Amino acid sequence: MENVLKGLKPELVFNYFEEISQIPRGSGNEKAISDYLKKFGEDLGLETIQDDALNIIIRKPATKGYENCPGVILQGHMDMVCEKNKNTEHDFTKDPIKLRIEDDMIYATGTTLGADNGIAVAMGMAVLASNDLAHPQIEVLITSDEEAGMSGAMALDGSNLKGQYIINLDSEEEGFLLVSCAGGVTAHSKLNAEFTNVDANKQALLVDIKGLLGGHSGMDIIKQRANSNILMGRLLNSLCVDFDLAKVEGGSKNNAIPRECEAVIVVDKNDVEKTMACIKEMENTFRHEFSTSDPDIVIECSETTVEKVLTDNCKNNVIRTLNLIPNGIQTMSMDIEGLVESSTNLGVVRTLENEVTFECAVRSSVTSLKENITNKMNLLSQTLGGEFTLESDYPAWEYAKGSKLEDICVHTYEKLNGKKPVIQAIHAGLECGLLLGKMPHAQAISLGPNMFEVHTPNEHLSISSTTRTWEYLVAILKSMNEHN
Asked: Annotated active-site positions, please?
């Protein structure tokens, strides 16, 4: 380990963050990090539970004078979104994250950083390992597979947890206390793929859309950034020449706004220059439309080779789906200014041997609106002769106004900073709704340090904000006996 973060304060937090950055922990590949956390808890002599879903619970007794306080659950997730730039050589199943520091920020190198939610894991570990903190009984709960559908939290046995206060550490903006979030579901549409041989008198072209900012499909959807899969659908629907379509491939995670998409089209050799000119015109159109929110869109077109193309009917159905599937903000809240109420993100498109697949993250704070969106997707799929399925459906986290935990966190923040924090609902999904469903006696709140460009290779974490957030968390725990 390089110890890139050596000397940063709080030392334990940053040391543990660097340690876990050495362990591959993409969603679905969490056995190593779960085993590491299990050993960590056991080495400290603390009661440690690892369940079949690889969730980890580590329990630390209350310090003197805090024995009668309600227990606190510090909660985060162990997995990270694995995104990288095309020119970055990195195997997320075995390579460590390469950390670097620029001014006040910690970055990875060409990949996502994993501060979402590695910083929660590091803070939880630091609380467990520290011997100079005052606190009630602590349970550090680190769930698995949060990013891919919250299956860890879904599988969790709530009876294993004793705490009454859940402090979720999966927020990304200092000074904000999150008290509510949207629910969500993953939607899969599938079309049968039928192929035919390429006409030898035609030329294959690789169309590559890239340079987009991307981002978190919950937190960043309001920024109106371009979705590369949707842009490709528009481009294919607007081409000024007849063409065949061999494939469309875009995005890698449904909860990340896709930054890149490529398609292979086949045109008459006499139409190559005309096709390239048309694509250049579309690039100019997109750059104009997104000049503020996504100004660096690039569309490259180059000659390639291909042996088979989709049949005309299949090609047309793929293009129809890309253009008609709901995407982006669907409704805004009429109760909370500036809050997205429902949205979708066409995050992944794949052309496989026998099918073309479309994967969307659907989010809404209103269950009926979520159902309305997926019903539209289902109708589109049925109309085109495709299949439609849903998975990883998780509930919204409803606001419990005036909770005791909210009062404690507000009072402590005001005492530290001389001002009140912002109480906020967000459109992104947090595990609090699932956890409260398993522990109806509990209260929950979410906080965290400043992170930026989460779910993209430009993800970065503020060092100074992490320091202040740690001090705030320590102060909350210390204040618990004052509010007992």
From this structure: 79, 146
